[in-house]
Amino acid sequence: MASYSTNEFRSGLKVLLDGEPCAIMENEFVKPGKGQAFNRVRLRNLKTGRMWERTFKSGESIEAADVMELDMEYLYSDGEFYHFMKTDGSFEQVAASASAVGDTKEWLKEQESYQIVLWNEDPISVTAPNFIELEVVQTDPGIKGDTAQGGSKPATLSTGAVVKVPLFVNQGEIIRVDTRSSEYQSRAKG
Amino acid sequence: MAEHPWAPGGDRARWQRRAELFAYLRRFFAERGVLEVDTPVLGRLGVTDPALEAPAAEGGALQTSPEYFMKRLLAAGSGPIYQLARAFRSGEVGRRHNPEFLLLEWYRPGWDDEALREEMDALLAPLLPGFPAQRLPFDALLKQVFGLAWREAPESAWAEALEAHWATLGREGDPLALAEGDPLTILEWLYGEASETLQAPTFITDFPPALASLAALRPGGETAARFELVVAGVELANGFQELCCAKTQRERFEADRARRRQLGRPDVPVDEALLAALEAGLPPCAGVALGVDRVLMLMTGADSLDEVMPFSWARR
Fold first, then answer.
1. B78 lies within 8 A of chain A by CB
2. Are residues B96 and A29, on separate chains, in Cβ contact within 8 Å?
3. A58, A174, B207, B221: which one has the fewest Cβ atoms less than 10 Å from its Cβ?
């Protein structure tokens, strides 16, 4: 397996640390008092999303991680795995476990495109597009005349996610949601 | 990023600030009768300093600083001299490090280090807020940041101070393991961490003799006449009341080489031409090297050297 020396460190580099695949977010070269130099590195664990901060002696090497990021289309769930298909025309499929899908489960919509991180060709994380359009499957009826007041109510979407929507949004409507904050954006056009 | 990114860093306004800074520095020294010189970047030898690696190049090495050549000029009677010099250091890549960078280095024969610091105040006052800079001896800095009277304290107390500081910053890993328990490395590291906490412009003065580098020791030998300038946690300059004694200089070079052997670093021969110049007579003088790219970084509020160098390491 390839490895990287500290002087090759740069943000975006995928490395193996404590057996976990990580992405380097920041690399700071420090040389206190003109002595022994170090690299202070912030890494994101690609499986858990957690940030790590590690210090390496300059010149040290760490193993590279075989990590790929791909856009893939969601197909279906068989109850245990979530199946995605490559969009490069190969129709190749991968099965992601519930832990790889994580909270993105609430935003899985068929034929929508997701960012999949593959480690040694296994999916380890699934990221939803920033904005997604989904149908409201359940919400209490709105109250006439309240549109200007800006009140809100919970609405259950077709994927199972529950978001706060304005009172004028009705069951059966399609809305646009920011998946990062779970916030209602607008009614979908068309 | 494209496969062959071509775009330089910064924008025209930044490049103009850079050009204006060069012009200002040259004007400053011209008005004071300091002679501009230029010396080889491709020298015959690298440097013995165990913490520096000069990139090898045809027939020798790219210079980590113009110091030795400038001292040879001083010994030959140049009088006060300055240089805007390209300097090279292998493997030093980061937000505040680039393997090739610009040093403003100057020497003042007959001056002591405090007189040179006063000239630095005058040079930098129009460029950065907070000058004249405060003066803070090395001992006082460690006392201020860690409550550590390190001269009296046992080395185990240095280690504890370093560990406690790491814990406070929420850093993972064991700093002592990284330092391999080496007291000198721990002391350097304590210094590095402490200087990073300084926001207002500060000259840290009177270094321990073990960190003297090329500075003369003060009478009595308690401290070395070395200083650093730190602004917003960034080291901008390193200066000395220069060591003029050829014999002591040779001993320090040999100590460097012993340390290199201990650390498994490649050997670097002693620069005999420099020692011969010291033997011939280097006038008592103070000298300093200022990182020009870093000054520009602080002047423009940039967060990295990449924003103030048209072609940083990553953009070549």
1. no
2. yes
3. B221
Profile chain B (316 residues) by mean pLDDT over runs of 10 residues: 73 94 98 98 95 92 98 98 97 90 98 98 98 97 92 89 86 79 87 94 96 93 96 96 96 94 90 97 98 97 93 90
- CA pair distance A115, A93, nearest whole angstrom: 14
pTM, 2 dp: 0.81
Chain A partners within 8 Å of B191 (Cβ): 32-33
Cβ of A35 within 8 Å of Cβ of B175? The answer is no
Beta pairing partners, A71: A115
Residue-range domains of chain A with CATH: 3-63 (2.30.30.30), 67-127 (2.40.50.140), 131-187 (2.40.50.140)
> Does residue B52 sit within a domain?
yes
Q: What's the alpha-carbon Rg for chain B, to the nearest Å?
A: 20
Is B82 within the bounds of a domain?
Answer: yes
Of B91, B172, B189, which has the smallest distance from its Cβ to A58's Cβ?
Answer: B91
Tens digits of residue pLDDT in A7-29: 888 888 999 998 999 999 988 88
Q: Can you point out the beta strands (E) in chain A?
A: 3-5, 14-17, 20-30, 38-45, 51-57, 61-63, 67-77, 82-86, 93-96, 113-119, 122-127, 131-139, 152-157, 162-166, 174-178, 183-187
By three-state DSSP, how is residue B188 classified? Answer: helix
Alpha-carbon distance of B198 to A19, in angstroms, equals: 37
DSSP A33: G
Q: Output DSSP code: residue B273.
A: H
Is residue B103 in some structural domain? Answer: yes
3-state secondary structure of A39: strand
Amino acid identity for residue B98 in this structure: N
What is the bridge-based pairing of β-strands B134-137 and B202-205? Answer: parallel
Give me the residue from B51, B172, B195 closest to A36, CB to CB.
B51
Interface of B with A in 93-112 (CB under 8 A): 93-97
Q: Structurally, how many domains does chain B consist of?
A: 1
Domain that holds residue B245: 12-133+200-315
Q: Are B186 and B142 in contact (CB under 8 A)?
A: no
Spell out which residues of chain A touch residue B314, defining contact as CB-CB under 8 Å: 10
